Amino acid sequence: MKTVFVLFDSLNRHMLGCYGGSRIPTPNFDRLAGRSMVYDKHYVGSLPCMPARRDLLTGRLTFLHRSWGPLEPFDNAFPELLKQKGVHSHLVTDHYHYWEDGGATYHNRYTTFEFVRGQESDPWKAMVQPHWERLREKYHEAQTGGGPISKYGPYMINREFIRQEKDFPSVQCFAHGLEFLDLNREADDWLLQIETFDPHEPFFAPERFKEPFKTGWNGPIRDWPRYGRVEELPEEADELRANYYAIVSLCDFLLGQLLDYFDTHDMWKGTALIVTTDHGFLLGEHDFWAKNRMNMYEEIVHIPLFIHDPRKPAAGRIDRLTQSIDVGPTFLDIFGVDAPPETEGESLLKPNSKDAVIFGYFGGAVNVTDGRYTYHRFPADLLKQDIYQYTVMPTHITRPFTPEELSGATLAKPFSWTKDVPLLRVPVTERSPMFDNYGPGALLEKQTRLYDLTIDPGQETPLHDPARERWMFELMKALMRSNDAPAEAFKRLEL
To answer: Per-domain residue ranges for the chain?
Structure first.
């Protein structure tokens, strides 16, 4: 068996024509839909980037035990399980978080891997004395850090070296992916993962993709929205959105190159193709940009999924409830490998049915949906909740846990899924490096809410229905128990 897995980052489901989007032409996503099973109720698990990938690889929800961090020694990563069965897995990615402290154990699970440099704040080019004043003049002041260059600096330097379309990291990712297919399409038992950071911010695409969305903006470069409430002038907001539309158009074009390759080499008959994303992105909906700061609205958590299985080539819409943790078990199923007993997800190729799914950020609300209602339950006080990280790999995104954090650590008994491994139980404090970035201190919305997606698909008016809330409350508890959530997770939500 042969499989290609395409993973985009921050791809909005509601922008794609096959999901009802009309703002951007997406002919190649729509073309893929005609060849695939299109999943209409597919949801995230743990967020943001690396927690989502840990879910994808392991088939387990992780947000109730851990924030952003590496794969743990007891985790079951599907590429490694395939490797043990003689299936060659190859990762091509420009997602630079894999090479930071908080993601450093992921890419090693693949048999081989390629890393394309230059996305976002990737510390790529060694420009020791940049011409900061000249660079600052090119960018909107909101994107220069205001003072000493911060996370925006590496992007401004990287962009100096991305001059032609072929230089763009996502373009290179797909080129390397096609190169793998040239070398290996006649072989058997392989999985190719083409993973690009696009359309994640900053929204930088070749000029020809921006042309259809020109806003008349004549100010400095404005392609990187802040995480938080919309405070920009209308023309700035329009420019930010236009740049997102351009980069989604680039992603559609690159997907089209892959589909053309499948057509040219008649790969549809013997190769599975799965396309999805880690999460969505707010572009002003609910008066917010991005993620991490707000309630987990549908635009963030309801994501696209396409599966072409050559053994079941019929296309169609799949209405049952599915989740990111089902993707890893699906790859195992494709290659006839049994999922480990610790796996929570189920193969998407089997007619499994879920009553509900839970999802969330570590330290934030626990959220549940049954496909019609969404319920978002917050702790009474996000800043004073009793919460711990469970890990034997104590690193944040770009640095280890601090000695101050670890000084309060104790040893916790194994969970049901840690293969008899006890864990460090590290208390979360306001001085933790993650607290105000992607932890409890980052959230700007903190109110428990219930929505009925049938009558309120935009989640504009919270529903007051104590009986329904109680029902969702019970679904949440049952799923948390199935996940072997720590005791304090129930306590902090008053469950």
So the answer is: 2-350, 361-492
Separation CA 235–CA 221 (nearest Å):
13
**Cis ω on the peptide bond leading into residue 433 (within 30° of 0)?**
no
Tens of pLDDT, residues 131-176: 888 998 999 999 987 655 678 999 999 999 999 999 999 999 999 9
Tell me: pLDDT of 16 over 90. Answer: yes
Residues linked to residue 41 through DSSP beta bridges, in sequence order: 321
* pLDDT score for 313: 75
Q: Which helix (H) or strand (E) holds 114?
A: strand 112-115
- Radius of gyration of the chain from Cα atoms? 22
Residue 98 and residue 62: Cα distance in Å, rounded?
17
CB count within 10 Å of CB 317 equals: 11
Place of tokens 């763009």: 168
- Report, as an integer, the average pLDDT of 271-285: 98
- In a 3-state reduction of DSSP, which class is residue 193? strand
Residue 148: per-residue pLDDT? 54
| DSSP code per residue over 418-454 | TTT--EEEEE--TTSTTTTTTSGGG-S----EEEETT
Contact in structure between 91 and 195 (CB atoms under 8 Å): yes
Predicted local distance difference test score (pLDDT) of residue 151: 85
* Count, residues in the chain: 495
Mean pLDDT of 77-82: 98
Alpha-carbon distance of 81 to 65, in angstroms, equals 23
Residues 243-250 have a mean pLDDT of 98
285 burial level (CB within 10 Å; 0-12, 13-18, 19+): buried
- Find the mean pLDDT for residues 305-319: 92
H or E element that contains 157:
helix 152-159
- Strand pairing category for 288-290 and 2-8: unpaired
**How many CA atoms within 13 Å lie on the side-chain side of 227?**
16
Secondary structure string (H, E, C) spanning 157-200: HHHCCCCCHHHCHHHHHHHHHHHHHHHHCCCCCEEEEEECCCCC
Residue 354: CA atoms inside 13 Å, Cβ hemisphere, count? 30
pTM of the model: 0.97
Report angle CA 378, 381, 384 to the nearest 5 degrees. Answer: 130
Q: What is the pLDDT of residue 202?
A: 98
pLDDT interval class at 381 (50, 70, 90):
very high
Residue 147 pLDDT? 56
Q: What is the fold, at CATH topology level, of the domain defined by 2-350?
A: Alkaline Phosphatase, subunit A (3.40.720)
Structure tokens of 294?
């707000």
Q: Degrees (nearest 5) of the Cα angle 331, 279, 152?
A: 120
Peptide bond into 310 cis (omega under 30): no
